[in-house]
Amino acid sequence: MYSYLEQELQSRFNLFKLWQQPPSKIPEFLKSNQRTIKAVVSNARVGADAQLIDSLPNLEIVASFSVGFDKIDLKRCEEKGIRVTNTPDVLTDDVADLGIALILAVLRKICPCDGFVRSGKWKDGDFGIVTFPCFLLQFSSKPVGIVGLGRIGSAIAKRAQAFGCSISYHSRTQKPLKHYKYYDNIVDLAKNCSILVVACSLTDETRHIVNREVIDALGPRGILINVGRGAHVDEPELVSALLEGRLAGAGLDVYEDEPEVPDPLLRLDNVLLLPHVGSDTVETCNSMADLVLANLEAHFNSRPLPTPVI
Amino acid sequence: MGLLMVKTANQSVPAGSQIALLSLSHLSHPYGSFDHMASPATAAEEENLPQVLLLLHPAAFTIFGEEHFTSAKFRFLKAYESSLPLDEFLAANARSVRALLVSAATVVGAGILDLLPELRVIVTTSAGLDQLDLAECRRRGIRIASAGDIYSADVADCAVGLLIDVLRKISASNRYVKNGFWASKGDYPLGSKQLRGKRIGIVGLGRIGLQVAKRLQQGFGCTVSYNSRKKKNPDQVPYPFYQDVRELAANSDALILCCGLTEQTRHAVDKEVLAALGKAGVIVNVARGAVVDEKEMVRCLVEGEIAGAGLDVFEDEPVVPKELLELDNVVLSPHSAVLTRESMMELARLVVGNLEAFFSNEPLLSEYEDD
C-alpha cells in the first residue's frame, strides 16, 4: 500500500493489513476480526468481491484507492447497503498524460532508440533502428479514436487536439456537448483511426471490447493504447496480432493478470509496457490518498461522502 | 510485389539474357507506396542533365532510399565516391556545378566555395543551417533552400515525448517491465513527476518552439515562457519573454532548447544556467548539441545538480558521453527527431522540388531568408 496512505490510516483507524497475511491464513484472519472491521480500503488490483464482503458482516464502506471499481462487487454492496467510494478527477490529468506519453513513445520508438544509443550501435555507424521499414511514425495530425469519452477520455482528446489530431470516439451514449465524431460501434471507430486509445471503465459490456474484429479493423498501420483495464483487451488476440505484424504497435499500462505480462511482448520493439503507473506521481498519489481518507472520515462522522460510487 | 524492368541504353535484349530488375517490394509495405518515384533517364539523356554535387552521402539517402531523391531533370555528382582528395576531385569535375545538396553534417565554408565558382544554390536536407557559412554564401550571391517548416511538428513531438519520458520515467519503467522486474521485484518505485502546472522555458521560439509551446500549454496545462533573439509581438505570442536565458532557467521547471546554433547560442546553456535551473530541473535538447556546455551538463546530471535530461543531439555526434549511458534519469535519442516516414516523404518532395525549380529558373520552394 502507498506508504503515506498506510501511515495515515494507521494513525486514524485500527488498521488490519490483509496483504501481510499468507493467502491460506486469510479466511481465518477475517473470521477472527470480522466483528470489528467496518471499512475496506481497496485498489485497482485487489478489490472487494462477494466472498470478502460476505465474510465481513459489519462492513459499512469500501473506499477504493483508484477511480476504477471493477474489482468491487457493487451489486452485493448495494444489497447490503454498503457505501463504495473511488478517487475520480485527481488522477485524470496524470492518466491522460500517460496516454499521450504511450502514443509518442510507441510511434517514435523512444525507448528502443534510447537502447540503441546506450548499446553503442549509433556510435558504430549502424543506422538500424531508424531505417526503413522500421520507420519512426508521426503523431501530429493523425486520427485518434478514443473508447470511452469520460473524464480521462476527454482529457486525452484535449491533449491530442493540441497535436493537430482529429478526434473520434465510441461510448455507451453520444456526448452532445463534445464536438468530436461519434461512432456507435467500436469496429467503425477502429476502421477510421490509426491510434486507438482505451479509456473507458470496465463493465460486463466492455470486457474484451477490443477483440480480434476490432484489431483487424485497426489494421497493420494502427496502434493500440490501453490506459483502462487489462480486461478491456482480448490479450491473447493482441499478442498474436503483434507477433504476426497485423498491428503496428501497442502501448500498454494495464494487463489481464498484473503483474504478469505476456512473455512474447517482452521482446517486441514496437510494444511499450508500463507497470500500471497511470496515476503514479507523488502529487497524485497524495491526492488520491487524501480522498480515501476524506471519504472514510466523512462516513464515520455521518457527513456526505465526497466521491461516492454508491 | 511489383517489378520495374530497366533496359540498359542502346542494347536490344537477346532472348534469355538477364534483364536488370529493380525490385519495388518495399513499396508493398503496409505503409503504402511513396508517390514520388523517379523514372530513370537513359544513359544518353543523363549526360545532358545538370549536375547536383554531393560532398557526403546524405543520411536521408541511407535511411529513406536514394531513389526518392532522383529526378529526370538532374543527376548527382558524388564526390565521396571518388578516391581523389576532395579539392582535386572538385577542381577536376565540379568547376561548372551550379547546385549543391548537403545535410546537417556537411560543413561548407569559404574553402569549399572557392572550388565551386559557378555555385548558385545550396539545398539542405536539414532544418538547421549552422553547417553553412551563411555570410560567405550571402557574399557570393549563393541562395539557400532549407527544409523549411516540414519538420517542425515532428521535432516538437519529439521534444514533448522526451520531456514526458523524463518526468514520468516512461523508458525506465518500460525497461523495468521488460527485464521481468515487475513480477519479481514488485511495483515500480514511486518518483514520477506531474506535467500539469510545470513551468516550461523554451529557448528559441521559432517554428519549432512555437509548436512545442502550443502542445504543452494548450494540451497539458503547462505554463510557457521563452527566450529568443528578439521579443515577439505579444499580440501574437502570449507567453512571457525573458531577455536572459539564466533568468528563464531560474523561473522554469524544464528548459526546452529549440533554437538554431549560432555564435550567440553556442554554449548558451552554461554552468550558470544549469545552476539556475536547479536540482529539480529538467533539460530537453532538440536543437544542436553545442547549444549546451555538454561537459558541464553531464557533471550536473551525474552529481544530481539537475534532475534529468532528454537529449536528441550531442556536441560530437554520434559520440555520447559515456556517463550518460549509465543514468536512468536521462533519455537519449540518435538525432532522430525528423526521421519519421512522413517527414522523410516531405523532405524528398521538397529537395527534388527545390532542385527542379532551380534548374527551371523558377522560385525555390523553401528559400532561406535572413531576418
UniProtKB/TrEMBL annotation, chain A:
Alphabetically sorted, this entry's keywords are: NAD, NADP, Oxidoreductase
Give the top-level enzyme category: oxidoreductase
Q: Which Gene3D superfamilies match?
A: NAD(P)-binding Rossmann-like Domain
Single GO MF annotation? hydroxypyruvate reductase [NAD(P)H] activity
Protein name per Swiss-Prot or TrEMBL:
glyoxylate reductase (NADP(+))
EC number annotated for this UniProt entry: 1.1.1.79
- List each copy of the D-isomer specific 2-hydroxyacid dehydrogenase catalytic domain by range: 28-309
User: Which Pfam families does the entry mention?
Assistant: 2-Hacid_dh, 2-Hacid_dh_C
CDD domains given in the database record:
HPPR
Q: Which GO terms describe its biological process?
A: photorespiration
Q: Which family does it belong to?
A: Belongs to the D-isomer specific 2-hydroxyacid dehydrogenase family.
- Reply yes or no: does the keyword Oxidoreductase apply: yes
User: PROSITE patterns attached here?
Assistant: D_2_HYDROXYACID_DH_1
Q: An example Gene Ontology cellular component term from the record?
A: cytosol
Chain ranges of the D-isomer specific 2-hydroxyacid dehydrogenase NAD-binding domain: 100-278
Question: Keyword Cell membrane: yes or no?
Answer: no
UniProt cross-references to SUPFAM superfamilies, sorted A to Z? Formate/glycerate dehydrogenase catalytic domain-like, NAD(P)-binding Rossmann-fold domains
From TrEMBL, chain B:
Protein name as catalogued? glyoxylate reductase (NADP(+))
Q: Give start and end of each D-isomer specific 2-hydroxyacid dehydrogenase catalytic domain.
A: 85-366
Q: Which GO terms describe its molecular function?
A: glyoxylate reductase (NADPH) activity; hydroxypyruvate reductase [NAD(P)H] activity; NAD binding
Q: Which family does it belong to?
A: Belongs to the D-isomer specific 2-hydroxyacid dehydrogenase family.
Give the E.C. number(s): 1.1.1.79
Q: Write the record's keywords in alphabetical order, separated by commas.
A: NAD, NADP, Oxidoreductase
Highest taxon above the source species: Eukaryota
Q: Name one GO cellular component term.
A: cytosol
Enzyme class per UniProt: oxidoreductase
Residues annotated as domain D-isomer specific 2-hydroxyacid dehydrogenase NAD-binding: 160-337
> What's one Pfam family here?
2-Hacid_dh
Read off the InterPro entries from this record. D-isomer_2-hydroxyacid_DH, D-isomer_2_OHA_DH_cat_dom, D-isomer_DH_CS1, D-isomer_DH_NAD-bd, NAD(P)-bd_dom_sf
- Organism source for this protein? Linum tenue
Tell whether Oxidoreductase is among the UniProt keywords: yes
Do you know which PANTHER family this protein is assigned to?
A: 2-HYDROXYACID DEHYDROGENASE-RELATED, D-ISOMER SPECIFIC 2-HYDROXYACID DEHYDROGENASE FAMILY PROTEIN-RELATED
Query: What biological-process GO terms show up in the record?
Result: photorespiration
